[in-house]
Specification:
The protein has 231 residues and is mainly alpha-helical. The protein has 9 helices and no strands. Helices cover 75% and strands 0% of the residues. The chain has one domain: Orthogonal Bundle (Arp2/3 complex 21 kDa subunit ARPC3).
Amino acid sequence: MRKALRVTFAVLFVYLLQTTVLPYFKINGVMLDLLAITMCCIGFSCGMYTGFTAGLFAALIMETVSGDLAGLTAVTYIGAGPFGAWLRRRILEFTRVGNRAQERAIKQFAPMVAFGFYVALKETIYLLYFYLTGVDIGFIHIFRVLFAGLQTMLLSFLLLPLEHWYLTRRPEDTFLGRLFAKRRKEKKGKPDKKPLPAGIEPVREAVRRPAQRRDDPLDGADDAAKGGTDV
């Protein structure tokens, strides 16, 4: 349940950021496709089924709001999650016998490079679609495809560790989890009842103790008188 809420919040937050803020920060006419990076990160961190579901959710939002590329946006976003999951499985299986340093470097930097290639492939599919619809393709369009892939690759070095930490952290590592754990610990350490002031406890014990019968000297005198009368 917590994972589903985190993934939903991540998709909605990135979608709002991409549609409201990022259009004002285009570089050479290229806008960062933050949503595609997020779908790859979700598949990489949470698995294929979660990545597919998140991609389907993002595709439905994008196609509902601005579906103008004959479903290509939906296909690329749906495929980003399974691509990230497949990439993680291949990286975990990869080994370089006799060269551990190279193996660690490849496992660390390969996801960012692969995300850049995926976005470049997505932009290439868009370019091919525009070409088939009669749009003249020039060098500037090819440059934008390559620049989009390079931009995604560089920003993935920051976004992938951040989103991986957000999606995979344990509940007790969150701020609310630590706060609740601290309160439970404080509550457990407190006594059930407040200690009584000094002098009250002996009085309470005296009240609870049953009254003891005291010997009355007149009782013995009465018994002696009765005995004398009988004699």
